[in-house]
Amino acid sequence: VSDSLTTAQSRYRTGRGQLIDVLQVKTQLATLRTKIEDSRNELDAAASELSNALGNSEKIELEIKSELPSFSLKAIETKLNQKSYQLPELERVLLSQERLEEQKSVTLGKSLPNLKLVGDYSFTNYTKSELFDSASKSWSLQLQLSVPLFSGFSSLYERGALASKDAQLELQKKDTGNSLILSQIKSRKTLESAEAALSSAEEAADLAGQS
Question: Are 90 and 180 contacting, i.e. CB atoms less than 8 angstroms apart?
């Protein structure tokens, strides 16, 4: 546009152009300055988002040199792994469900019957001659079964509370899955729109160069 302004001014001075042509190019140049400043601000904001996504506390500086090449959606899809991928939001819910299952075992385990094998071995002697006498040795072995009666009633409340948490996590998993699907659809459509916009911009830039 600056080159076009120089040409328009030269043509106006030599009488081959009109003043309105010079003013139109100056108007385009003034409008571009605002767009350039907006683009620079968007670039800084994108750098901050990239830094946050990478978990970097320091700001990343981006600089675009020469031309920014366009992209092909098909070329990007060939580099994506559609079978093995991670969804941190969904994995967080699944880990919470696993932790709840472990909590069930700990909480309800105290209300279950307890079976113990108890053994006792004693060695008694009063004289040196009885040291190796088999009569001075004795042992006993018993099996104990403890059934908690009253704590079993309190476990009913605990079972209800754990079942409620389990249902909440299941609903959270479904909501998270639906949100991720919706987010992927929106991102895909945004990417398709960006591809179409870049294609149109390249065509417009080519026509502008010819003009």
Answer: yes
Among candidate residues 98, 102, 112, 104, the one with its CA nearest the CA of residue 160: 104
Quote the CA–CA distance of 158 and 112 in Å, as a whole number.
13
CA angle 79, 84, 85 (to 5 degrees): 85
Half-sphere exposure of 121 (CA within 13 A, CB side): 1
∠ CA(109), CA(103), CA(159), 5° rounding? 65
Q: Give the Cα separation of 60 and 49 in Å (integer).
A: 9
C-beta of residue 87 within 8 angstroms of C-beta of residue 180:
yes
Give every residue of the chain whose pLDDT is below 70, as ranges.
67-70, 126-132, 150-154
**pLDDT at position 171:** 92
For residue 159, give the nearest of 78, 104, 80 by alpha carbon: 104
Of 44, 49, 79, nearest to 64 by C-alpha is 44
Q: Which residue in this structure is represented by tokens 């009569």?
A: 135
Instruction: Indicate the pTM of the whole model.
Output: 0.47
CA dihedral 169, 171, 172, 178 (to 10 degrees): 150
Please state, in angstroms and rounded to a whole number, the distance separating the CA atoms of residues 202 and 200.
Answer: 5
Among residues 109, 73, 100, the alpha carbon closest in space to that of 166 is found at 100
